Amino acid sequence: MHNLCHKKTHRIGSKLALPILSVAILSTLALVSDTAQAAPLPMPAMTGPLQSASPFRFDAGPLGKLDVTGVMSGMGLWQDNPVNTVSPDPVAFNGYTHADISNGQIFIQKTHGLIQFFLQAGAYNMPALGSPFLSTGATTAGYYGPLPQAYLKIAPTKNFSVLIGKLPTLIGAEYTFTFENMNIERGLLWNQENAVNRGVQVNYSAGPLSASLAWSDGFYSNRFNWLSGDLSYTINSANTVSFVGMGNAGQTGYSTLATPVYQNNSDIYNLIYTYSSGPWMIQPYLQYTQVPANPAIGVGRSTGTRGAALLTSYALTPHVTLAARAEYIASTGNTTDGAVNLMYGPGSKAWSITVTPTYQDHDFFARAEFSYVQASSYTQGDVFGPQGNNPTQARALFETGFLF
């Protein structure tokens, strides 16, 4: 999802103050209210090991009963071989250590009736392996704004629904925000995927089969020419397999921090298997991406990536879980055949390992993380360090906060 080559950053604006203040006020209401608590909600989606709290439910008059949840967390980071950015903006981070808010978000939703909705507001960070680290202010302002996901859901039956608005992507095995995933950082494969798109999505389920089809703006381009589909089969209570595909049906030359031009003109496919039983969760997946040749956007030769990842977590105790992720990804082409740079130069490769122990007790959580990335067949100037010539990067992170 992150553009490895795009170094532009944005200042945090005063418009972020309102959603952050709203988080503080509503979280206080949730903590002190004696209103009856409802069961955990399906949104925001949570892979685990973190578990969301039971929502605060209130009667909103003509809107009916609404559910409110949220997350407040902070994060500290150390890294070697930091990547310099071209911007003098003080929120662009190119140092060795950094501390920041990782999440200050509130979620308001209606989950019953024909007309439903989901609103997500606040500040967030989206750290990812192998890509420059941005401050939370730069991330929120430069990507999806203080309302990163917001959609209307029309659900005439329990098996059929239509979503309209700012939607989470169908592609990939990892979600967008830190608290939703096994690991604090997203992985190398995630760097080739989109995260949030604006559009319309249709969902249908029948027995063990579920399917989704979406028409959207892909990498948040505001050009509606992307088609996405997801087909999942639940083998039994412990095993699920999914095939996901998406691609640009047209051509988009537009580019921003959230819209890397090459990835926004690509086709992406995933094959994902998920096993979840007892203390174990195991999720291997394969990824194929391809950017067709298109001289109009600077792609002289069709270029793609091929990747594989294994994500696992094991609950050591009811409060302590150990998660790990291993990945390998390779890009096609070379520096002389017209291929474009999708990673660390045309034809570059990389592997990573990430380990994340997590502790959660009721609403409180704390977790640490160590990650290591090794690039090969890279182009000088396109990897890590002040000059972009070091092929490795190690990071250590700590995140703690509350899910309410």
What would your notes on this structure say?
It is a single chain. It contains 2 helices and 17 strands. It has a 16-stranded antiparallel beta barrel with strand order 2-3-4-5-6-7-8-9-10-11-12-13-14-15-16-17. The protein is 6% helix and 46% strand. With 404 residues, it is mainly beta. It has helices spanning 17-32, 136-142; strands spanning 56-59, 65-79, 97-110, 115-124, 149-157, 160-168, 196-206, 209-216, 226-236, 239-248, 267-277, 280-291, 303-315, 320-331, 349-361, 364-376, 392-403. The chain has a single domain, classed as Porin (Beta Barrel), CATH 2.40.160.10. Pfam families: BBP2. This is Outer membrane beta-barrel protein. Keywords: Signal.
Provide keyphrases for this structure:
404 residues, mainly beta, Porin, 16-stranded antiparallel β-barrel, 2 helices, 17 strands, globular, Outer membrane beta-barrel protein, signal, BBP2
A few lines on this structure:
By secondary structure, the protein is mainly beta. The protein has a single domain, classed as Porin. The protein is built from two helices and 17 strands.
How are the elements arranged and paired?
Layout: H1 17-32, E1 56-59, E2 65-79, E3 97-110, E4 115-124, H2 136-142, E5 149-157, E6 160-168, E7 196-206, E8 209-216, E9 226-236, E10 239-248, E11 267-277, E12 280-291, E13 303-315, E14 320-331, E15 349-361, E16 364-376, E17 392-403
Antiparallel strand pairs: 1-2, 2-3, 2-17, 3-4, 4-5, 5-6, 6-7, 7-8, 8-9, 9-10, 10-11, 11-12, 12-13, 13-14, 14-15, 15-16, 16-17
Query: What's the CATH architecture?
Result: Beta Barrel
Mean pLDDT: 90
CATH homologous superfamily (4th level) name? Porin
Overall 3D form: globular
How far is the N terminus from the C terminus? 28 Å
Helix content: under 10%
Largest sheet: 16 strands, antiparallel, barrel
